[in-house]
Amino acid sequence: MAVLSYTTFIVLSLLLLVTFSNVAEVYGSANLRPSDCKPKCSYRCSATSHKKPCMFFCQKCCATCLCVPPGTYGNKQTCPCYNSWKTKEGAPKCP
């Protein structure tokens, strides 16, 4: 009986581990290489009318955080480093 409970616990733990690792992959954990920053930032900045400053700061943030939030706006909670980097005035540094 104890062996069955232990085996069930191990199997459920492994399933949870696999599930959470896939969630981290989908939501942009810090897993980019610096060479991935330019294409990710190009998409991130594609909807703005201020492309040059957006690309500059996005690439700077990506190089430091190795993460760019999905989409063209918002979703910064998926990249904690990217989300928490602020200017001297307290405004968000990363687009």
TrEMBL record:
The keyword Signal applies. It holds the Pfam family GASA. It comes from Lupinus angustifolius (Narrow-leaved blue lupine). Residues 1-28 form the signal peptide. The keyword Transferase does not apply. Belongs to the GASA family. Keywords: Signal. This is Protein RSI-1.
